[in-house]
């Protein structure tokens, strides 16, 4: 993968100047590729995504070593807004929709950088085409949507920025199996449209079906990596790292 879209080399993260949460993480995402980041609770998966997007600063964390390159530019330590403008978005765990606003108003906020209405309309149409469920719900109040619909909304809001890479943290968390399927169908469609994805997910099976490559983390380090099919098929990996039977 000579021309990675995203490349982390030996990234270290310190929280509050004392807790070393990442101890030298290296990983790559190819243009239009999809990579799953797996591992137990507390392994450092969310921290890795936050370090990439710059959100780590609001948790009193910082990249204290190594490098992060996105589309050939060093981005470690940059402000999140500037990272978003360069084409990298981060869908965080927890589906933070603006509950009193409609679906469309939530999406418009994701497109706040557009200077004119025509540009905004084009981006909205793009989201409705990729996620038709949101078109049906456009006038609904976001706070009354189901968990799966809210997950689709935060994904839609993120792609308003027309990114080339999306980081997404635990999209299946707390969703019923049918909703997980629907959310992952959206992610498969976005992949098909050429969006690269770096996904953190406890539901290893659905993550490895979506991804082409995977990394397993433990205690702030990558302990294993490989093609998604191989990781999912390896008996030891399934048992010890991924909790599959
Ligand atoms: P989970 O699935 O539980 O979110 P994770 O693999 O995403 O797990 P992280 O949330 O990245 O793990 O946490 C990695 C380590 O960093 C943990 O030991 C955690 O306690 C610590 N950590 C996370 N956030 C902070 C913070 N704001 N301040 C201090 N330590 C933190």
UniProtKB/TrEMBL annotation:
Stored InterPro entries: AAA+_ATPase, ABC_transporter-like_ATP-bd, ABC_transporter-like_CS, BCAA_Transport_ATP-bd_LivF, P-loop_NTPase
Record flagged with keyword Transmembrane: no
GO annotation, biological process: L-amino acid transport
Key words, A-Z: Amino-acid transport, ATP-binding, Cell membrane, Membrane, Nucleotide-binding, Transport
Top-level taxon of the source organism: Bacteria
CDD domains, per the entry: ABC_TM1139_LivF_branched
ABC transporter domain boundaries: 6-244
Keyword Zinc: no
GO molecular function: ATP binding; ATP hydrolysis activity; branched-chain amino acid transmembrane transporter activity
Family statement drawn from the similarity comment of this UniProt entry: Belongs to the ABC transporter superfamily.
UniProt protein name: ABC transporter ATP-binding protein
Organism encoding this protein: Ramlibacter albus
Higher taxonomy: Bacteria, Pseudomonadati, Pseudomonadota, Betaproteobacteria, Burkholderiales
